[in-house]
Specification:
388 residues; elongated; 11% strand; Rossmann fold; alpha/beta; 54% helix; 12 helices
């Protein structure tokens, strides 16, 4: 068995090291304020404090979005005789159309984001791959009154072998409606497959934002499909998952011989599905490691870049709001021109300090991301070397 060079805890320590001072302690904030107010007039200092109390923005809140670096690719064993990846000949994309998919994340309706990601994924698969589209939870409603109907709502809305245009049309008409019959969805997806001598030739990709809610057993369903003569695998792509739902969906992927990945926003989901369109995982440890390495690196990039972008936007917005606010404040407070100018300079210097802090963090955060990605790649390289 290959031993990982680092643990999840150690990778997160790398992230924590670069951002450990964020948000800064009260004493550090006091020191920053002392530097801002050094050599300022008493009138300006008093007016500045009044402005902050009345109209100041919380710049510290901009620094609370820390990246969560991933290491899912580390430490898997490679057993002798296991087969290496094959390109699937048959794929079913199973779309969760439960009522929760009508919710929004990152200002985007989840169902719309999932449909656009699936559309891109399907359109870019090799032309010789047979594709089917399954919907589940798309009937009834998400109230108790509609549960029975919704839990029966599992349908191949585009059969295996349907043309890409037909699949696209079926996908476009899908809307978020009811409950989540995940076990039934996996069982019906498997009904589209044929006996196969090659594991990984037939694959289910489930896109879902939550666990089973129709009293089925999706873990058992995935295991039965994987152990059947179809020798299919079940991959789970989680989307905006609650913490309580994540464990079950990870077990479903494990039982189905596949991989579990997740996205937190529509952009992440589109990026993930774009990344995996040629990363077809079968049941081998080698394949899962390759798949998870790519996904881990992709998620690390998304997390770090997203954090830096959001923090920059937050600082810019807060700075603009304070710049407008201080002009109004100095006018309404009746400050003389010299004091008003001094207060404005202090407020601008405060914003510049936070910007400088972000500039320092950027290089360190990117270095931590690169280190985590390198650890993922090193472990994969070691596995591949042992397999030769």
């Amino acid at each position: 068995m290959v031993q990982p060079t680092t643990t999840r805890h150690e990778i997160r320590l790398a992230a924590a090291f670069c951002l450990a001072a964020l948000p800064v302690s009260a004493s550090a904030q006091d020191a920053m304020e002392d530097a801002l107010l050094a050599d300022r007039s008493e009138a300006a200092i008093e007016a500045y404090h009044a402005f902050i109390d009345e109209r100041g923005r919380d710049f510290e809140a901009c620094f609370r979005d820390l990246p969560d670096l991933r290491d899912e690719g580390l430490g898997l064993s490679l057993r002798k005789g296991e087969e290496f990846p094959v390109e699937p000949v048959r794929v079913v994309v199973a779309m969760d159309a439960s009522g929760s998919m009508a919710g929004s994340v990152g200002g985007e309706i989840k169902m719309g984001a999932a449909k656009s990601a699936a559309e891109r994924f399907i359109s870019r698969l090799p032309k010789d791959v047979e594709i089917g589209l399954l919907a589940f939870g798309h009937t009834g409603n998400n109230q108790e009154s509609g549960r029975a109907e919704s839990c029966q709502g599992v349908e191949m809305i585009a059969e295996i072998g349907s043309g890409r245009e037909a699949i696209s049309q079926s996908l476009a008409g899908l809307s978020a409606t009811g409950w989540t019959p995940l076990a039934s969805a996996i069982e019906q997806a498997g009904g589209s497959f044929s006996p196969s001598e090659t594991p990984g030739e037939q694959v289910v990709y489930v896109v879902s934002d939550g666990e089973e809610t129709c009293d089925g057993d999706p873990i058992a369903a995935a295991r039965r499909l994987h152990d059947s003569d179809a020798r299919a695998i079940v991959n789970i792509i989680g989307f905006d998952l609650a913490k309580a739902d994540r464990a079950q969906l990870m077990e479903v992927a494990e039982a189905g011989g596949g991989s579990f990945v997740e996205a937190r926003t529509g952009n992440e989901l589109r990026q993930l599905m774009s990344d995996i369109q040629t990363q077809f995982a079968n049941s081998s440890a080698m394949t899962r490691t390759r798949f998870n390495t790519v996904m881990g690196q992709s998620l690390n990039n998304l997390a770090t870049n997203g954090m830096l972008t959001r923090t920059q936007l937050c600082i810019g917005t807060a700075g603009s709001q304070e710049a407008i606010g201080v002009a109004t404040f100095t006018r309404q407070s009746g400050l003389d021109r010299e004091t008003a100018s001094e207060v404005t300079e202090i407020v601008r210097a405060r914003r510049d300090l936070y910007q400088a802090r972000l500039d320092e963090i950027k290089a360190t955060a990117e270095a931590a991301r690169d280190e985590a990605n390198e650890m993922l790649q090193d472990d994969l390289d070691r596995l591949e070397s042992e397999s030769r």
